[in-house]
Design goal:
4-stranded mixed beta sheet, alpha/beta, 3 helices, 2,3-Dihydroxybiphenyl 1,2-Dioxygenase, domain 1
């Protein structure tokens, strides 16, 4: 047996708005949509699933309080990605910065409040 991919799932109270955020603002592509309930968005070889729920994701407050993240997206040019997202109107929680663990990172939130880190190894 070989695992070929790992797919994360984020909960959303507005599937259309979340699809728009990930495709229009972040530049992902819509991989699939199942009715008005479930969708997958693709970034390169990775897919994130979006699931419609009735109430806001309860992990958002936990992640905020503990300085955790929902998704960590690695890139080979974090500055270029940050510049593109700023031009797309994405609000930054933390701009590009150097870390003690030798990465360059920035932090944003999606339309639902999920914390997304973008990072580049140095």
């Amino acid at each position: 047996m070989q695992i070929t991919n790992i797919i994360s799932q984020l909960r959303t109270t507005d599937l259309a708005a979340s699809i728009a955020f990930y495709t229009r603002q972040l530049g992902f592509t819509l991989e699939f949509q199942y009715e008005d309930f479930y969708a997958g968005v693709r970034a390169g070889g990775q897919i994130v699933h979006l699931k419609l729920v009735d109430e806001a994701d309860p992990t958002i407050a936990y992640v905020d309080h503990g300085e955790h993240f929902h998704l960590y997206l690695e890139t080979d040019d974090v500055v270029a990605v940050a510049d593109r997202l700023k031009r797309a109107g994405v609000r930054f929680e933390k701009d590009v910065h150097e870390t003690a663990w030798e990465t360059r990172e920035f932090v944003i939130k999606d339309d639902q409040g999920h914390t997304l880190y973008f990072g580049q190894q140095q």
